[in-house]
């Protein structure tokens, strides 16, 4: 028989959970911590609604290991926070403040963009994007603060798998012209266009997102007057402006 989503969650909980949970003990090795975090991510991501109870238990260790010195442990933990948030959906509310604080700490640390932790940072940015999507459904009043902060961290540049996910989420937000991501009186438009210009036609976006960027730029440009166009050209510089114009 073919197992459906969630069919394996109860057997996992009854047999493997205690063993793998033990791998998260502070005295365990980095390899043990990574293995446990990845295992829980897989169960939560693929276990459907049955995995929600595991996601709830997972939040605390994920936030603890999100700032681990080992880059693989850190990356697995911050990715897991986003996975758990998606699983919990409306039930994520009681974890949201703590989760955001630990992700912001990861993203804004002095070594966040270095070679060692760059992929972890991209995954943390992606997880904040997933949390924003939950806020859009259940806590819209938080968006004017969180969305511009998230935008300020873009583009994601290091993780070749997660960066396209991040920039696809960016388009999800930008395609709603009433979104708080644009800022008051479109004050964030220069930053938005700068990010789009930087990632366009690179490995940081997939083909579908590239098409969405082109369509969005057409919508934005149709609403600009000559003065606004000149101001944007001056602010963006010739390289980014030229790249945007070429689309």
TrEMBL record:
It is found in: Cytoplasm. Its main location: cytoplasm. Transmembrane segments: none annotated. The keyword Zinc does not apply. It comes from the Eukaryota. InterPro entries: ARM-like, ARM-type_fold, Importin_beta. GO terms for biological process: protein import into nucleus. Coiled coil: none annotated. Keywords: Cytoplasm, Protein transport, Repeat, Transport. One of its GO terms (cellular component) is cytoplasm. This is Uncharacterized protein.
